[in-house]
Amino acid sequence: MTSSVGRSPVLWRQVLGLAAVQSAITLMWVMYGAYVPQLLEQFGLPISLGVAIAALENALAIAFQPLMGSLSDRAQRWTGSRFPFIAVGVMLTAALFLAIPGITVLGTDTALRGLMLFVLVAWSLAMTVFHSPVLSLLGHYTTVSHLPLAASFLTVASGIVGTQVPVVNQMILNLGPLATFSVGSTVLLLAAALLRRLDAPVSSTLSGAIATDASPLPSLGSLGFLAAVGLCLGWGQRLMMDAVRGMISTHLPGQNSNQIMLWVTIAIAVVAVPLGAIATRLGNRLALTAGVLGAVLVGTLWGLVPSAAIVALGILVLILALALIQNGGLPVALAQVPVSRAGLGVGLYLGGVSAANLLQNALQAGLLSLSLGGLSLLGAAALLVAIALLWARKPSPTPG
Q1: Which one of 32, 63, 90, 372 has the fewest CB atoms closer than 10 angstroms to its CB?
Q2: Using the 8-state DSSP alphabet, how is residue 370 labeled?
Q3: In this structure, is the dihedral angle defined by the CA atoms of residues 210, 215, 216 and 222, taken in order, positive or negative?
Q4: Helix H or strand E encompassing 10
């Protein structure tokens, strides 16, 4: 990855603009998750159908994330900017997001069920049109060594907004779905417009270099590596968070597991930036390894000695570990590909994360039969595989 940064290793205004877009994306997913069960109920469909819809969305995202990232790479070589491509995805996403509650205006009879299901899936696909392209811009805004620090602001954005499920649920009840979803669409459009304005001088500086970049398409090994790392990191984090919730309920009786999980998510966001600064000094591979080893330690202790004291200590260690892991995933993708292929690299990584979500849903019944210690050990094992892949692979010669 080649950076456009001059004297400053991080273009902070652009990074904060990208964090604003990430906040808008997370907010829309929170609204979507809060409203879909109500929507299914209105149409007389079982709420459990939401699991099947999520599985289909993740299955499609496995292919669409890298496809859209690659198409945005091509658009950047032709036009000098990813933003025409990103703008199409943002506007399509905003329009379909409004259409979700808008369907209920037409009625809730059986004939409209197919249209409702189509719009739900179409919206999630529209999100993939710009998600990997916009996140790939992070590689334009910082040097390779400072990627974990810059990425930490995306971790903060996702973490803080992601904790707002109760607020969004109440907002939907107070304002109604149409007004609430209008807020989500407007926030996305404004955030994207702000980032476009901030990005303009960076894109103009990069356009010539990217247009003449003759870097070959990364090898199949590189592409498979990014997808595998996304899968292992994504699944490992999901399993560890599920283990945390179960451990709280089982070994910390009398505690509100939902409230504690809320504070865990906030704590991960709070420590993300200082840990991103540490990762910049250590190097992302070492920092990511430290995070995974911390999670493995917690998983092992919970598997062998699941006492209340160990659970409480493990949660504290896991907060630091997961912050390092969340900061480090996207930089791995960006550091493995030249800047002209950043969209493809990020898309493959996000496709791997979607595969992790699909795998989690498919194996949910079997995972419920595992002990909490076994669940945490499985999560630790998935994270260890990611680190083994990372250390087995030589650093890419393409980044500058």
Answers
A1: 63
A2: S
A3: negative
A4: none
Instruction: Report yes or no on 399 lying in a domain.
Output: no
| Amino acid 61: pLDDT | 95
Provide the terminal-to-terminal Cα distance of the chain, rounded to the nearest Å: 6
Instruction: Give the pLDDT confidence score for residue 213 in this predicted structure.
Output: 58
User: pTM of this prediction?
Assistant: 0.91
353 three-state secondary structure: helix
Residue that terminates a domain, selected from 179, 211, 243: 211
Residue 29 CB neighbour total at 10 angstroms: 16
Which parts of the chain sit beneath pLDDT 70? 1-7, 202-216, 394-400
Distance between CA atoms of residues 264 and 44, nearest Å: 36
The reported pLDDT for the residue numbered 397 is 44
What the block records as the tokens of 155 is 């971790």
Q: Is 283 left (phi over 0), alpha (psi -120 to 50) or beta?
A: left
Note the helical H segments in 212-283.
220-251, 257-282
Q: What's the confidence (pLDDT) of residue 6? A: 47
Q: What is the pLDDT of residue 169?
A: 84
List the domain range (segments joined by +) for residue 303: 220-392
Phi, psi of 283, rounded to the nearest 5 degrees: 100, 140
Distance CA 334, CA 396 (A): 10
